[in-house]
Each structure stands twice: as structure tokens, then as C-alpha cells.
Design a protein that fits this description.
With 218 residues, this protein is of the alpha/beta class. Helix content is 50%, strand content 13%.
Length: 218
């Protein structure tokens, strides 16, 4: 990656925040451009610093991470949110994804996994902790209240969606399907439009719910 990924670190615990910054500072491809102690401060800095990725804690004073995520995405949709928290409960996971986060990791994740997730999220590609995926599926196994038009997807788009759900990046999908990255990017955008979702993560969750891919395949 030619340019460093600009990251804003958000956590109300100074030790955790400083530890994350120290760890990320050792990564050549990442530049920490700021730090925030609350959701309110995170929103302000996201607007002023324009990071590519906001590493977002959830439980904070003044404004929690879910509301901060929602406000950032409303006014700066180009900023991608990666939640990093200790909570994998449904009252935190689903609201975070619905607010616009495209990544969700637990704080006990391996540091290398966090770095990989930051790079993926910087490219607009989702990254979910396996434990989080399990929690989400418990909710998504309920009967659909309305059926989204999966039938409108072409065979190629379904193929791309399945590979997205298995965790492949656009570059990897292009290589597997012998397509150009630009063509894959177009397919992904069309999938999001047809499914009426705003992120790859939401598209993947939809694919899991509709049975287009299983956890075993992932």
C-alpha cells in the first residue's frame, strides 16, 4: 500500500488507547492521526481529521460508540468504522452494523488480526470477528419479515456475493473469477444496490441469512 492508512483511535480508557496507538505506530502502513476519549470527541475529530478508519470503542461517556458511528456516517460517509470492543452481545453488534460500522472485532483479538482488519476496512471491505458472526446469525435465523429481491441478482453477482461472504477481497475475487478488479468493483456496487444495503458487511449478513453461503463454507 503506497500511502499509509490514516486511523483515528477512540477509547475512553487511557491505558487501552495509548496501548493501541503504540502498537499501531509499529506498523509501517498505518498512521495514527488522532485519538479521542469519547464518542462526542470522536465525531468532532472524524470531521476535522478525515481519517480513513475510525477504530471505535462502544461504551464511552458523553456519547456511546454506536451513536458516534451513526453521526460520522451521516456527515462523512467516506470514513469507515471498525468497532473494537469487549462486547459481542446482540444489543451492541446489530445496532453498530446498522449505524454504519463495517467491521467488528473483540479486544481479545490477535494484534495481527486487528492490523489486517484495519487494512480491509480502509478498502471498504468488512471484517467480523467469528464470535460476532455467530451472534448475528442467531438474530438472522428468524423468519424474514420481507424478502429482498435476491432473484434480481445475476448468476455472476450471486457468485461474487458468495465469495464476499467467504471473506475474499475484491482483488482476490478478481483473481479467482479471472476478472478485472474494476469489474468486480462494479459487481459489488450493483449487489449493494439491488439488496438495498449500504455496506459489504450487510450484504454478507444477508447472504448468510438467505443460505447463499454457510459458516462451514466461510
Amino acid at each position: 500500500m503506497s500511502e499509509k492508512v490514516r486511523v483515528l483511535v477512540v477509547d475512553d480508557h487511557p491505558v487501552v488507547r495509548k496501548g493501541l496507538i503504540a502498537m499501531l505506530d509499529t506498523e509501517e502502513g498505518i498512521q495514527v492521526v488522532g485519538e479521542a476519549r469519547s464518542g462526542k470527541e470522536a465525531v468532532e475529530l472524524a470531521f476535522s481529521l478525515k481519517p480513513q478508519v475510525v477504530l471505535m470503542d462502544l461504551v464511552m461517556p458523553e456519547m456511546d460508540g454506536i451513536e458516534a458511528t451513526r453521526r460520522i456516517k451521516q456527515k462523512a460517509p467516506e470514513v469507515n468504522i471498525l468497532v473494537l470492543t469487549s462486547f459481542s452481545t446482540n444489543d451492541k453488534v446489530l445496532p453498530s452494523l446498522n449505524a454504519g460500522a463495517i467491521g467488528y472485532l473483540l479486544k481479545d483479538s490477535d494484534p495481527n488480526e486487528l492490523v489486517r482488519a484495519i487494512y480491509r476496512v480502509a478498502q471498504g471491505e468488512g471484517s467480523l470477528d467469528p464470535a460476532v458472526t455467530q451472534q448475528v446469525l442467531k438474530q438472522y435465523r428468524a423468519p424474514l419479515k420481507e424478502v429482498k429481491p435476491v432473484e434480481q441478482l445475476t448468476d455472476r453477482e450471486v457468485e461474487v456475493l458468495r465469495l464476499m461472504a467467504r471473506g475474499y477481497s475484491n482483488q482476490e475475487i478478481a483473481r479467482l473469477l479471472v476478472l478485472s478488479p474494476a469489474t468486480v468493483f462494479t459487481h459489488v456496487n450493483r449487489i449493494l444496490t439491488k439488496l438495498n444495503v449500504s455496506s459489504r458487511t450487510q450484504a454478507v449478513l444477508y447472504a448468510l441469512r438467505r443460505g447463499l453461503v454457510t459458516l462451514d463454507e466461510k
